[in-house]
Amino acid sequence: MHDFWITVSIIIALFALISLYRGIAGPTLYDRIISVGIIGTKTVIILCLIGFFYGRPEMFIDISLVYALLNFVIALAIAKYIQNIHKV
Amino acid sequence: MNIVVIVLVSTGLFFLGIGTLGLLRFPDFYSRAHATGKCDTLGMLLTLIGLTIYAWSLGWWLVGVKIMIIALFILLANPTAIHALTRAAFLAGVKPWTKKENPKQ
Fold first, then answer.
1. A–B: how many Cβ contacts below 8 A?
2. Among the partner residues B55, B60, B84, nearest to A75 by beta-carbon distance
3. Which of A34, A42, B2, B88 is deepest in the core (most CB within 10 A)?
4. pTM, whole model, 2 decimals?
5. 3-state class of B29 per DSSP?
6. Shortest distance, CA B37 to any CA of chain A (angstroms)
7. Chain-chain contact of A79 with B81 (C-beta, under 8 angstroms)
8. How far is B9 from chain A, CA to nearest CA, in Å?
């Protein structure tokens, strides 16, 4: 079970790196915002898994809850801020 | 009980991979947002449910409750954020992909 957590964490980190390609080469501005949001969502799962890997999940679960909240609020704030740009 | 946890986390990992593949291969912003919003939320939900069952089987009941709170929050918050971004893109004038303009694809 100990090896399983680290394997899953490495595979999810690879998926996050692949979705960074859309953040660099996306044709519109909104593609880049979504790719950053996806990386943030995957970071929450990786933090929970690393908590179980190191044997003390209490600390890492609190950190991942804060990061999930931050990700959501930032996505809403940026969507409100760039709503009226007419040349994308 | 370990078999159930391994199956749930592997299924969640599979759906996360499918969501990333959709982000790379779709031709339009709206379809990419649609694919990642749904697949990502489902993969995260399955993975966190598997972790909750693992924590409850080891005896840490408070850790399991906290992971369920994170899963519930992301289930509600991720589609809302994707909807807000899609609405902002529509109001700013991003045009969807139609087959008439791209007959070769």
1. 126
2. B84
3. A34
4. 0.88
5. helix
6. 9
7. yes
8. 8
Closest chain B C-alpha to A12 CA, distance in angstroms: 7
DSSP 8-state symbol, B105: -
Alpha helices, H only, B1-105: 2-25, 29-58, 61-92
What's the rounded Cα separation, in Å, for the pair B42 and B12?
A: 7
Nearest to B89 by CA among B32, B41, B44, B47: B32
CA B60/CA B74 separation, integer angstroms: 22
Sign of CA dihedral B13, A30, B35, B84: positive
CA within 13 Å, CB half, B93: 5
Each residue's pLDDT expressed in tens, for chain B with a length of 105 residues: 889 999 999 999 999 999 999 889 998 899 999 999 999 999 999 999 999 999 999 888 999 999 999 999 999 999 999 999 999 988 888 888 887 777 776
Task: Say if CB B46 and CB B80 are below 8 A apart.
Answer: no
Nearest to B32 among A34, A42, A45 (CB): A34
Count of CB atoms within 10 A of residue A85's CB? 13
Structure tokens, A25: 């080469």
